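Researcher: I'm preparing a figure for a lab meeting and need a structural model of a single chain. I don't have an experimental structure, so a prediction will have to do for now. The sequence is pasted below. Please return the structure as tokens so I can convert it later.
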Amino acid sequence: MVDSRKKSGLSSSITKPFKSKKIALLKQNVAELQNTLKQTEDELAKAKDEVEVLSKEIQDLQSTFDGLKVAHASNIDDLMERMMEEQMARAQEKKEAEDRLNVLKAEYEERITSIDAESDEKTEELRKELTEQMGKIKQKVLQQRDEVVSVRDKLIVEKEKEIAKLEKERRSVKKMGVRAYKAM
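Model: Understood. Here is the structure written out token by token.
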């Protein structure tokens, strides 16, 4: 399409200064846009560099984290294994202690039963001995009582004889006293 103003010749001289201003403005806009584009590209390049650096740091951190994670998992596995070993050792010690305790209980129960049996036997023997000794002592006491009674009876008989003799003498002294009184 051909511009109608260009055909007439008049319009080209009027439009020329506008066009050159427009072109100058467009050129200035293009230059500003190119400058902005260059700045944006520079910033983009810087951002890409920063992204690459950050990406590398992230990869380094990720590999460090993965290494730490593996080491931590290994440490946890080691700790779990040690805990299991310790737990098994404690369980074994507990079982051995319970076995020793059961053996000791059985021995003590056997000793107690043996001591109870011996004690019962000794108690029965002592009871028999005491019964025999009590019987002997009772016999001795009865015999001694009989002896004491018989000695007492003898003494009583002797005392009664002595009393009778003294009574007889008293009567004879009284008779003599009465005779002597009469004789006087």
